[in-house]
Design brief:
- The protein has 80 residues and is of the alpha/beta class.
- Helix content is 39%, strand content 22%.
- It has one domain.
- It has a three-stranded parallel beta sheet with strand order 4-1-5, sandwiched between helices. Strands 2-3 form a two-stranded antiparallel ribbon.
- A hairpin with a 2-residue loop joins strand 2 and strand 3.
- The radius of gyration is 13 Å and the shape is globular.
- It starts with a strand and ends with a strand.
Length: 80
């Protein structure tokens, strides 16, 4: 996987995407980053914190935040 590091300019979730068949609300900045990094002719496996961490589950969110350094280190590439 490749990890995305992006600026969350606003905590307003005005856009949406489908991740593994599950609809997720995302910020406009993440939506724009995903469109920018999208490859038209091949699959790309991306990790971004907002859709990959259940923000409504405080336990999961705090556990995942502690793991973010490892997540970024193990990524094949970090896209900024």
């Amino acid at each position: 996987y490749e990890a995305i590091s992006y600026t969350c300019a606003s905590p307003v979730f005005e856009d949406s995407l489908t991740c593994n068949g599950v609809p997720r609300c995302v910020t406009n900045s993440l939506s724009q980053a995903l469109l920018y990094f999208r490859m038209q002719d091949e699959e790309r496996f991306l990790w971004a914190d907002a859709p990959c961490i259940n923000q409504l589950d405080d336990g999961e969110a705090s556990t995942q935040v502690r793991e973010m350094l490892t997540i970024y280190r193990k990524a094949r590439k970090v896209l900024v």
